[in-house]
Amino acid sequence: MNMNSNIDLFEDKSFTENIRDLLLNVRWALKRTWSTNASLTASLIGVTLVQSFTPAGLALTARGLINTVTTDLNTRTNDINILLFWLGLGFGLTLAETMSRVASKYFTQRLYDDLNLGVTSDILTHAAGLDVSFFEDPRFQDIMERAQQNTAGHFNQFVTNILTSATSIVQVVSLAGILIVIEPFIALIIVLVGFPYLFFQWRVAKIKYSKEHSRATKRRWIRYYTSQLTNQQNVAEVKLLNLAPFLIKKFRLLMAQFRDQDRKLYLHSFTGSSIFSVLSTSAFYVIFLWVAVRALKGSLTIGDVAIYAGITSRLGRTIENMILSITNAVENVLYISNLTEFLSIKQRTSVTSGLTPESRRGEIEVKNVSFTYAGSTQIILSNISLHIRPGETVALVGENGAGKTTMVKLIARLYDPTQGYIKFDGIDLRELSITYLHSQLSFVFQNFGRFEATAADNIAFGSWQNTIHDHERVKQIARLAGVHNMIEEMPQGYKTLLGRMFGEYTLSGGEWQKLAIARAFARDTSLFILDEPTSSLDARSEYKLFSRFRKLAKGQTTILISHRFSTVSIADRILVMDKGQIVEEGTHKELLSKGGHYSNLYRLHQRQMATPLTE
């Protein structure tokens, strides 16, 4: 994965390279917009064309109307037909311009909804396919933060700005063309005033984007401080520790930095816009004076003076709108480049290819496996080899940091080994389809899911494709896992909405853990992995639960991690880990008789529990 930021999109590059990169992103954004809804995009282009040409048409209509009236007054011809023609044409053009604005708003709103749905779905789908290791990298978190910054809104604004730019360009060219016919000197004024202002706004757009790009980490900190003060899981401890003043101070410091930086940029933009307004208005009025003098001398008509007066006021606004639309489009396409950067991240493991064996036994072979987390030099696992037979229950034991959880995550292929290989039913994990491998695993994590959903759904999520609508199957699983009576005692039974975010009923830590284990039973798998899933239960309850679990999981391979020796003692075999290596292996009694690392851990556990365990 390329974690290099695209902040250098406009830095350390030539003007040609900047334009090339910009055009590539523009092309991608337009293609993505067209594929989202071609008919709406085409409709927007249509109303844009109408809006582009109506100002020039209205100006010419006004000129024709004024000249007709002037001629009629001087000659007394009273030709009503010509007058009606110009009035009818003006009415039609005005109506077309008004309706095109109404239609543009309607099409834009609809296209935004489609873009919001499509782009957000793309982000979520791509994120769902990435490896777990990406989400543990702060650099990736920054990239994802940028990709989620109202990307659909930037898409919609980009399309709007592109169309507005096209409209404004046509209007400027057509209106300027009319004025140039009256007074050619106007072209020089447009160039001398317009182009410097365009480059000024271009520069402002790049500065705004660069500032916002650099804020990704700080924005994540702001969201963190906010969540600590508002999340129901943290609010009690924050109150007891009186952390609110400290967290609010941190929040305000970051927000104040953003405010002060933006204030300087606002002043910079205001100064430039003010200079443009003064210069453009002054220049147009100087030429207006010259046009009026020429009319007095008889070289121009009253209609020419009137059309100049009407067009110059509109042309000034149109030039400014054109420049702002172009630079806003540039700014928005820079934000869209955040999305392309995120979508360009490739997962290390393919989910669309690999073997899908028909037979399944749950056999695990680990050979000379070592592992180091990306970006770290610390060796977590060192040259581990082990073999777990089909249907065997194996416990991993060791102190915190020994590498137990990392080992089972490698078996689940949430990571790939740095060295060595792991086989599942005789096939290297890297040759298996990820989808197939995960379908063969029931994994209960230390930090198990507490889903804001009904009690029934919390179980059915284990195999939602087959179980989410099968209420009888859910109840059957609940009975097997021993949680049926617990659920029946809830306010609405299996329909009780759990959690405090949307519901009004929550569970204790131990009850949530029981649901997590029941969720594992919903899966028809050949391998169970339980990584300290019952830490909120007392030792007696855990032992009873796993004794029941072992009976129910008979024939299925089970890997169990627990610090409680009463639980691990029921395993067929115990692997003792220390500092990333397997240092002992055997049954509970065999390991105690050796008087080694396991025995020392056991004696220490006895003293801590103050309740000797039966050997």
Tell me what the structure shows.
There is one protein chain. 63% of the residues lie in helices and 9% in strands. Among the domains are: 6-343, ABC transporter transmembrane region fold (Up-down Bundle); 447-524, 3-Layer(aba) Sandwich (Rossmann fold). It has helices at residues 15-36, 38-75, 80-128, 132-135, 138-147, 151-182, 186-213, 216-230, 235-240, 244-296, 302-343, 404-411, 434-439, 455-460, 464-467, 471-481, 484-488, 509-521, 539-552, 565-568, 588-594, 597-609, and strands at 364-372, 379-388, 393-397, 419-424, 427-428, 441-444, 527-531, 557-561, 573-578, 581-586. Strand 9 (573-578) and strand 10 form a beta hairpin. It is α/β, with parallel strands linked by helices and 615 residues long.
- Give unreliable regions as ranges: 1-10
Shape: elongated
For the CA atoms, what is the radius of gyration? 35 Å
CATH H-tier superfamily of the domain at 6-343 = ABC transporter type 1, transmembrane domain
Please describe the biggest sheet, giving its number of strands, its sense, and whether it closes into a barrel.
6 strands, mixed
CATH topological fold name of the domain at 6-343: ABC transporter transmembrane region fold
Widest β-sheet, arrangement of strands: 6-7-8-3-9-10
Classified by CATH, the class of the domain at 6-343 is Mainly Alpha
Indicate the multimeric state: single chain
Residues in β-strands, percent: 5-15%
Name the structural class. alpha/beta
Mean pLDDT: 81
* Count of beta strands: 10
In whole angstroms, the N-to-C terminal distance is: 51 Å
Helix content: 55-70%
Architecture of the domain at 6-343 in CATH?
Up-down Bundle
Number of helices: 22
